[in-house]
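Page 42, continued from yesterday. The earlier attempt failed because a stray header line got pasted into the input along with the sequence. Redoing it now with the clean sequence only.
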Amino acid sequence: MRPIRTSFVLLAALLAAPAIGADIAPSTKPSTALPGVRLLPELLEMPGLDRKRQVRLYLPPGYATSNKRYPVLYMHDAQNLFDDATAFAGEWKVDETLDALSKEGKLELIVVGIDNGAAQRITELNAWDNTRFGQAEGRQYTDFIVKTLKPLIDSNYRTLPGRLHTAIMGSSMGGLASHYAIAQYPQVFSKAGVFSPAYWTAAPSFDFMANHPLPKDARVYLLMGEKEGESMVPDVERMAGVVRKSGYPADATVLKIVPGAQHNEQFWRSQLREALLWMFAN
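This time it went through. Structure tokens are written below.
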């Protein structure tokens, strides 16, 4: 087995992100969230994990004045998605990006963001035990999304609930979790945005993906920055090879490696629009 290596900067980013947990004092920064963003009114129980979690929701600009049903994108690390006041190192501007795409008539989505678990983030987003970071909780976390959260959202909002209209996306550990989710539940998700995936924390993920080939109509967007860490680019290239060898169509996946890009929200924010338009292309 190849030894697990990563840079100090990348490791610091993975471990620092939990510091934005809900038990931290509110930020003094002004909110940048747009009107379409709201909190679900109650924290949700996470079966099998003995904890609760805040969920944040983005609704398209025309939601309140139409009878339309919308595709749904599930995202991790919700504190970082919509609002500088809650973000660890700057927000993704998911709401601004989707408001603009809606205005242009190109894409309208409901986004369901799950707050990260603070100290539990690195185990919740990993479906495989890691001797360095602890026992995996990713299976229970993914089951929470599929079996608790998705039914709640589909029952209370005008969604298009079928797999062809359901996607999952995240970065770093969230990228790893998103790739696991589409492979574990291909009957639920047909699209995955796998940004800067932390495969180095989950050596068994390569065999898992090889043994769980995706349906031919699934779409996977693999993104990596050239300067994210010494093993990051080789790992995503290796995973792309694993996916190709499983018989997955070449035109149903993207592998994009961006020169000079580093492991941060600014990079992921800059790539969001392109990834969403490809994932949800008709």
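Notes: The first helix runs from residue 8 to 16.
Reminder to self: strip header lines before submitting.
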